[in-house]
Structure formats: C-alpha cells, structure tokens
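Appendix B. Raw example, untouched.
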Amino acid sequence: MKITNEVSIVGSGALGIRISHPSDCNVYLFNLGGGSLALVDTGVGIDTERIVENIKKDDFNPEQIDHLFITHAHTDHMGGAEYFKKNFNCKVYAPIKEADDLETIDEVALGLDVAKKAGFFASEFKVNSCKVDIRLQDGDEFTLGNLKFKAIETPGHSKGGFCFLVLGAKKYFCSGDHISTGGLINLQNYPNSGSSLEGYRNSVSKLANLDADGFLPGHGLFTVNDGQREIDLMIDAMGDLLVKGRFFIPRT
C-alpha cells in the first residue's frame, strides 16, 4: 500500500494493518528512483511471498530491490533477510553490534528460544542465516538514488538496534521497535534480550530536533505528517521519569 510516492508499506502483521503473515513487523519499501528500491526490515520469514506480491500490487518490480536495511536482529524484523538476499541479490545493511546474530542465528541470542516456549513460534520453526554486507555504525549516511539514509544507533529495545532517517521530499523516521506511535517504548524482560532503560537514556538525545514528517514504526500505525511529535512524546516521557528505589515516579 503506497503511503506516499516515496514509500509503501508492503508487509504488516497482526499488530499492524494485516497484509502479510501475522508475525510480521511493518515492512517498508522506498522508491529510490531510476528503477531501484530499498526495504526496511523483512518480516518474520514465513510466507514472505505475500510481501513480494504486495510489492507487485504497488506496481514495483521486486527484482529491483537493491538494498535491505535491518533495524535490529529480532526475528519478526529480520527473519526474511536470507529470502530477499537469495532471490534478489540485495545488499544487506545491519547494526554492527547485531550483525553476527543474522549470520549465526543463535536462538538464545535472538530470544527465539523464549518465543518458542511462549508459543509464538512452533518448535520446528527455523530462521535462515544471512550474510551482512555492511555493518552499520552510528551516523553512517548513504545516498541511494533520490533518497539519503542516515543510520542512528539507538540501543534500548535491543543491544544495538538502529533507527533510520530517510530524507527525500519528506523526512521519514523508521523507528523499528525503539519507539511506537504515542511515544511508547518497548522494553523486553528475558535473558540476553539486550533491552534496557539505560540504553534508551543514552540514545534519546540523538532523536531530538530531527524534524521528521513521516513516522514509520515497526508495528502499529504510521503517520505521514508531524512524525516528530511521536518521537518527542518519548523524549518528554523519558525526561519526566525520576527513579526512586525500585519505582519510576513522574515529576509533579
């Protein structure tokens, strides 16, 4: 589904607009111009053909996917990476601190063992490893056709996840699971998750004053205009928390 002339949402599961497998994150397709395309995240890797069909329905040729950006190494966001690399020979960009997780598929490191025990995935479910071409570092910038992608390291939801600011006719902020609509954050409580409030505190200042128009989260509703509002809600909430003992108490 085209959001603007520059970006479409081509995958989204039960926590979104339900156009692909229920376990999929939101998958965004950017039109770089000149017959070149870029994906942000891939979904879980089950029935990935549905995402490909959605790309075709938006009158794009999946053979023109040249670039694949991964926000973080959680299965619902990168499980389909090997499929896209194998079928379309795209260049894979992944966070430097999580790239090994894509290449080794350690189920404990990915939290997949916990997800299986919780019943989110069948015990026989497997994720295929994927070679990473570019290991993203904080502040990396890539001019791809008509768009510029800026990589922003934002630990908090995971140990070294990234958000992407995409500059074109509009400014689009791809938040992965770092921020959801309404400024909500996603802390996960399981061993080896890498999720931490300290990570959020350390990265929050990087997101101020981006002047984002579009807000494109990993799950849930996206916006086309005034996207910075969603980011600022998170920034304000983080600033309003005081730690006292074991409890977070809002300032009065």
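End of appendix B.
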